[in-house]
Amino acid sequence: DTCEYYPCHFEGQDCTFCFCPFYACEDERTGGKWVERSTGGKVWSCVDCHIIHDPKVAQRILDILMEKGDTEENLKIAWEQVVKPLL
Asked: Is the pLDDT of residue 28 over 70?
């Protein structure tokens, strides 16, 4: 891969969604968590969430968004149908 950040999570990850369409889900069951910023305050970190980079998961989410459109409502559908059952 030619991305300077690859792998940002794990070797062999699917990078279809470099930026997670569910950020910031704020659901700690994903492995994500609130972390302290160096400038103070907290920010959501996805560093321990690998769900979106699983090739089968990425494809299922992409299929939903391609078929139904990339809208907030369809992102909710993808979350409910694809991600939530994995938590």
From this structure: yes
